[in-house]
Specification:
By secondary structure, the protein is mainly α. It is 49% helix and 9% strand. The chain binds glutamic acid (GLU). Glutamic acid binds next to loops.
């Protein structure tokens, strides 16, 4: 490799950054950094019906969240801009003219109906269809006459006979018979440029040395190599990464639940974990790697020696990794992340609504965030204090950050005991007596700390002549209205003396 390494990530901005795209971006970034090269971001927005500015903004946000800083691209001007295909039309025109002058393109008047008829005939003869190339034979005069008569036309690339070969960095040599390619369109009848032409022109003019992308593009590569040949420039190296599949071995899609970075972080997966997981899909993996940083990935991950087998995205494994990562975090870092997460999902503005959503499940939460129903909001002072106090109580118990809301969200809302929680509380023998005694006992503690609270609560069964199980269940339900909470003594402590005693007394009053 003599030229400085330059790679690019070239998303089509039609939605959120899905995991396949995130992985492609990640591998390009890692490859660039390992080789002291440059990472270019190019927005392939030539399909105006599907590309949106909102999607571009989301993709940039997700890449930044993953810390995949690009060296050139949108909001980072460089020598090879502009970095949006819609702004590069003049560059495409210039290359079309060069290809025309070299005799590599010809005008085709075949309508979609005629092409469809060719296709059907091929199908009937059980032949794979490629365009017949009939318009190659038209004379210049004939072309001019038909254009002047207003017939719609396209420009097609004249595919040479023979074969096209390239050495894929993962798969090794690939050879394709050119008779299977067919003369392909490079300029549509509305004058727009097709993907294969635009991508080659961009990669040439942006001095890209290595094209690292999903293997769904494998069939485009021979066409692109033919264009490089026609332009008289060497083709870059190609590396086609195996695609991502769901656990059902079907191509990863919306059906598989949360499959884009935005959704995953919305339910509280940590971006570092998603990043590591995407890398470990294609490598040997041991648990010590769960906490790797991006710098570790750059140091250790050899993109060129990835496997070629399909990678399976398993959300349960990701969840497990997330839990392990959380438990390995310094408590202060974890608390800060919880707070940032709660702020992002708008928890501090509407804790009861978020509790309901979290209880409904992660997809409900992700959907609400995706629909923009939840606006970010920083915590008030009390909420911040409570978050810092409670985070360490759940760090050992949760796998994704939204578990915090399910487990500890009740601490942020006034007491409500409803439905099955109420039935359970009512069914505890002596519940009212237990709650009243506990409220008095907590209110009178000399020091309000976890140790004293524990001693007091543990003394209650004997003092009241009831079962310990009844005391624990009554207090848990009475303080929270929830069957599952962080540790009982720690929760009573986190509430503070007045709030804890007040809740228990109020619960007794509800019975
Ligand atoms: N825009 C293409 C996509 O999103 C990528 C093209 C390429 O990498 O060559 O699939």
């Amino acid at each position: 490799m003599t030229a400085p390494v330059r790679v690019r990530f070239a998303p089509s901005p039609t939605g959120y950054l899905h995991l396949g795209g995130a992985r492609t971006a990640l591998y390009n970034y890692i490859f660039a950094r390992r080789h002291g090269g440059e990472f270019v971001l190019r927005i392939e927005d030539t399909d105006p019906s599907r590309s949106t500015d909102a999607a571009i903004a989301q993709i940039l946000r997700s890449l930044r969240e993953m810390e995949l800083d690009w060296d050139e691209g949108p909001e980072k001007p460089g020598r090879h801009g502009p970095y949006r295909q819609t702004e590069r039309q003049a560059i495409y025109r210039e290359h079309i003219d060069r290809l025309l002058a070299g005799g590599h393109l010809y005008t085709c008047f075949h309508t979609s109906d005629e092409l469809e008829a060719e296709r059907r005939a091929a199908q009937a003869g059980k032949r794979a269809w490629v365009y017949s190339g009939a318009c190659r034979a038209l004379t210049t005069a004939e072309v001019e006459r038909r254009k002047a008569a207003g017939e719609p036309w396209t420009l097609r690339f004249r595919v040479r006979p023979g074969t096209t070969t390239f050495d894929d960095m993962l798969r090794g040599p690939v050879e394709v018979g050119n008779d299977t390619i067919g003369d392909f369109i490079v300029q549509r009848s509305d004058g727009t440029i097709t993907y294969n032409l635009a991508v080659v022109v961009d990669d040439v003019t942006m001095a890209i040395t290595h094209v690292i992308r999903g293997d769904d593009h494998l069939s485009n590569t021979p066409k692109q190599i033919l264009i490089y040949e026609a332009l008289g420039v060497p083709a870059p190296y190609f590396l086609h990464m195996p695609l991502l599949f769901g656990t059902d071995r079907k191509k990863l899609s919306k059906r598989h639940g949360a499959t884009n970075l935005e959704q995953l972080t919305a339910v509280g997966f940590l971006v570092e974990v998603v990043r590591n997981y995407l890398c470990f899909l294609s490598t040997e993996f041991d648990e010590s790697m769960i906490t790797w940083s991006l710098a570790d990935l750059v140091a250790h991950l050899d993109v060129e020696s990835l496997g070629t087998s399909a990678s399976i995205f398993d959300p349960d494994k990701l969840r497990w990794m997330n839990g392990r990562f959380i438990r390995a975090m310094a408590p202060a870092d974890f608390a800060a992340r919880v707070q940032a997460y709660l702020e992002r999902v708008g928890f501090y503005g509407q804790p009861p609504a978020l509790r309901l959503l979290a209880a409904k499940g992660e997809s409900a939460l992700a959907e609400a965030i995706e629909l923009g129903q939840l606006a970010p909001l920083p915590p008030g002072d009390d909420q911040e204090r409570l978050t810092m106090l409670v985070a360490p109580l759940v760090q050992e118990k949760i796998e994704v950050l939204s578990d915090f809301i399910r487990l500890a969200g009740w601490l942020f809302t006034p007491l409500a005991i409803a439905g099955s929680a109420r039935e359970k509380l009512t069914a505890i023998p002596d519940a009212q007596r237990i709650l009243r005694a506990a409220a008095v006992c907590l209110a009178g503690l000399e020091r309000y700390d976890v140790e004293q609270i524990e001693a007091a609560v543990r003394g209650l069964p004997e003092q009241l002549g009831v079962k310990p199980k009844s005391v624990f269940a009554a207090l848990r339900l009475g303080m929270s209205g929830q069957p599952v909470t962080p540790g009982l003594f720690e929760s009573l402590w986190a509430l503070g003396r007045n709030e804890a005693a007040g809740r228990l007394a109020a619960a007794a009053g509800m019975l």
